[in-house]
Amino acid sequence: MREKIKKVTKIFKLIFGYGIMIVLFAGGLTFFGYVAAMIIGGETATNICTWIYKSFIPVIVYASTVLILFGLVTMYLAGEKALTPEKKNAQTEGEK
């Protein structure tokens, strides 16, 4: 049973990693949309910025939220503890 969970978490981590990478890339592309709108100007620029803000960004936000939840479930299944100090790490930082 434990081996199946390890295989599943490995696949889930892969999906999480690529998904977050795609969402971050898509979020970065919005910058170029705004730059293009600034260069074009006029009513077309307004339409581009409105489309990016009302249609594209909400999809990115929802996708990243779902992927983060997916990543947290993956960490729970794998038994990982993030952002918790370990005794070993505290000693290396001078806290003895």
Lay out the secondary structure.
Elements: H1 2-40, H2 42-78, H3 87-92
Helix pairs in contact: 1-2
Question: If you had to describe this structure to a student in words, what would you say it looks like?
Answer:
By secondary structure, the protein is mainly α. Helices cover 85% and strands 0% of the residues. It is built from three helices and no strands. The protein is elongated. The chain starts with a helix and ends with a helix.
Number of strands: 0
First-residue to last-residue Cα separation:
39 Å
Query: Which consecutive residue ranges, at least 5 long each, have pLDDT under 50?
Result: none
Q: What is the number of helical segments per DSSP (H or I, 4+ residues)?
A: 3
Overall geometric form:
elongated
Overall pLDDT, averaged? 86
SSE series: HHH
Q: Estimate percent helicity.
A: over 70%
**Any idea what the radius of gyration is?**
20 Å
Strand content: under 5%
Biggest sheet character: none
Look at the helices and sheets and give the structural class: mainly alpha
